[in-house]
Amino acid sequence: MREDIENIYSRKDGRFEIRYHYGYKEDGTSNYKSVYGSSEKEVIENYNQKIERLISENDLLIFDKSYIGYDIYTWLNNSKIKNKRSTNSNYQYTLNARLIPKFAKVKKKALSLELINKFTTDLLAEGLAPKSIKDILIILQQILKNGGTDIKIPMPKVPKVEIQILKKEDQAKLESKLLQKLDTTTFGIYFCLYTGLRIGELCALQWKNIDIENKKIYVNKTLVRIQNPDKDSKKKTIIIIDEPKSTSSIREIPIPHFLLSIIIQLAKDITPDTFLISGTSKFIETRTYFNRYKKILKKTNLDTYNFHALRHTFATRCIENGFDPKTLSEILGHSSVKITLERYVHPSYENKVIMMNNLKPMLNENIS
To answer: CATH number for the 168-354 domain, one of 2.60.40.10, 1.10.443.10, 2.60.40.2470, 3.40.190.10?
Structure first.
């Protein structure tokens, strides 16, 4: 029995002890833990049960530096320092669901491009979207690079997603419906049409974030649902209010004059901690608010538009009204103008015609 297990000792107190490798200390030296038993047979049984449990729980600390599992553990710990809670939750979910079961027990020297490509093929066969697979592979690429494994992973081709923008007649129809009965729900939709807020940012917005005197909105929080870190809880997910998507998403948005007059009306008898779209000190989660939005669209016969279409529509109308891309980029909270131009600015054909007809010949002569 002893031949299969290292670090088994007979102690002075009569018990037997098995030490096993359990990650590394901050100085890089090996860390060890122990299991005990009254006999050699018992300590081996206790050890096997302990290791089986750790493996079933995907506890990466049981792996040494020669395994991909150690690189996953190191990368995740490093990412926790620099990323916000919701991002780390998404990473943890991807690792637990996809990467740990497949790669944690693989030794670095045994890792090959063929193994990774088979992993990609299996995910495609499961019916996972190419965009989701690409996100998983990007994380794997970062883990491998961080661990010193130089493999360039081929990424699946992600089809271009059609961006939704409300037609002008549909936008007018929707606005008319919203203004017929202006309450916290309808105002939230109208508010997004003219500020470009994401749904999570809207759900986290409180009246203390709206400065009526200086006519500006402070966006510094977002509401998100994440995986519950408490494994013993019956709830698989929890809702948190966290910092926005990126540092550039923390921003100030000037309030247009026509919107300010509505805000002043709604601001009566509210407290700073009141949430904008609930009218109380309790938030409305994104899923609930989205369902309310869909009901309003259905009543207006416009139920084909997703919520993010409001943001796309805002950006497009801004460009049509002469916004420069840099200004719009900062209002939307993007890290670069390139993202704004490529993802959110979609001029209509009618606008293209207007722009083309604005061209004037250099010579005022008829050109035949």
So the answer is: 1.10.443.10
